[in-house]
Recover the amino acids of this structure.
């Protein structure tokens, strides 16, 4: 889904529901908005791909559903305050997973 650039409707379809039901689930289980969840899904996928040192940032971005590395770089900056190349050096998946868990905690606590 993230790989094909899918949106909320495509994510909902993976669960066999419509976008409104998915939104209700996200609220019920304190997962934030469906759009925010999609951002994190893409970031997590990209960070996993960045663990492969032979892969370029552009190829990781495209495989995670971005049209180019610019979108991925912008999302990393806006969401994590850093560049993909920086997290790549220190274990991208670990860093993004840690940030995702912190975000989920903030959402559950109502601070986001």
């Amino acid at each position: 889904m993230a790989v094909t650039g899918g949106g909320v409707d495509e994510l909902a379809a993976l669960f066999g529901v419509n976008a409104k039901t998915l939104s209700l689930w996200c609220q019920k289980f304190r997962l934030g908005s469906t759009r925010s969840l999609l951002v994190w899904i893409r970031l997590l996928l990209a960070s996993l791909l960045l663990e492969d040192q032979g892969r370029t940032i552009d190829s990781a971005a495209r495989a995670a559903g971005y049209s180019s590395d610019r979108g991925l770089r912008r999302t990393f900056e806006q969401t994590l305050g850093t560049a993909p190349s920086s997290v790549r050096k220190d274990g991208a998946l670990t860093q993004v997973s840690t940030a995702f868990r912190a975000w989920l905690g903030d959402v559950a606590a109502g601070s986001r």
In short: The chain is about 70% helix and 0% strand. The longest helix spans residues 92-109. The mean pLDDT is 89.
